[in-house]
């Protein structure tokens, strides 16, 4: 897993170049774009919405389900994203898109989705095999970004992408296994989280996907239960849930993810929330994004979380790579054969 995280920058470079060279273009600007995917293959869509949602000429919806919403029709664009190409929810949404006559695009490393795309003449951006889906984030996100530019949904942004990839590469040097704990923020943060209950709070609507990514990476790489939420919504309900002095509150380690583009009101909310919850016994620290563009800043936080999850897994004495419960669940479902 360490090598995969370290390889994210070169994956991103190759993915972005390949996506923009794809030999297809849409007939017309879609009314909406729907990306179907699960887990590690859905997060790229969430990140794209946080990063570029404001610039998109049409709504971009991430669908984590077997079927599409009722309003989706032939004037939309459908993207099926499944690293393995075998995820049943995504395959089912792909067929649903076909029934509704929605133009489709596929992102995968092979599997059934690739076979169906070949059969149907659906444009397909292929990823190399051999990754855990979550570790292919360089491929999945930068392919998706490249495609949206290629399709004219977003304007060109080569310099911004180069800077973001540069940040990912620099993080691998600063946070990789060779960098000692004394100068490695990811190892320090993993040590702080070790033995505690990680809670990720993302400030503002730009950091929801990053907070989700941290949580799912902690789940899968560190094999721990974790929680995430976004502000300001957290301030309107969940904050009250910390009032009773349960024993586990003292175990909580809250990471407040923050970006300088956050509204100052939301930043104030995060700081006050941290103060209130610390008084209740939880430990709290802010983690700031770094970089010029929003893309660079989002990825500065994302890769930090990836490295933290790796080191927390190692501190927990587990192998970060396998996901036994996911594999078991998928094979039991297959054996159950329920239509
Ligand atoms: O991280 C994982 O392994 C999962 O979250 C998978 O991404 C998820 O089960 C979907 O599989 P795939 O990405 O192959 O479509």
Order of helices and strands: HHEHEEHEHEHHHEHEEHEHH
What is the helical fraction, as a range of percent? Answer: 40-55%
Shape: globular
Percent of residues in β-strands: 5-15%
What structural class is derived from the secondary structure elements? alpha/beta
Topology:
Blueprint: H1 2-6, H2 8-20, E1 33-36, H3 43-52, E2 60-63, E3 77-82, H4 88-99, E4 104-108, H5 111-120, E5 124-126, H6 137-150, H7 158-175, H8 185-193, E6 197-203, H9 208-222, E7 227-231, E8 252-258, H10 264-279, E9 283-288, H11 294-315, H12 324-336
Parallel strand pairs: 1-2, 1-3, 3-4, 4-5, 6-7, 6-8, 8-9
The structure holds 5-phosphoarabinonic acid.
Commentary on this structure:
This protein has helices at residues 2-6, 8-20, 43-52, 88-99, 111-120, 137-150, 158-175, 185-193, 208-222, 264-279, 294-315, 324-336; strands at 33-36, 60-63, 77-82, 104-108, 124-126, 197-203, 227-231, 252-258, 283-288. The two termini are 35 Å apart. Helix 9 links the parallel strand 6 (197-203) and strand 7. It is built from 12 helices and 9 strands. It has a 5-stranded parallel beta sheet, sandwiched between helices. Helix 2 packs antiparallel against helix 7, helix 8 (185-193) crosses helix 11 and helix 9 (208-222) packs parallel to helix 11. With 339 residues, the chain is an alpha/beta fold. Helix content is 46%, strand content 14%. 5-phosphoarabinonic acid binds at residues 38-41, 82-84, 87, 90, 132-134, 220, 323, 326. 5-phosphoarabinonic acid is lined by residues 38-41, 82-84, 87, 90, 132-134, 220, 323, 326.
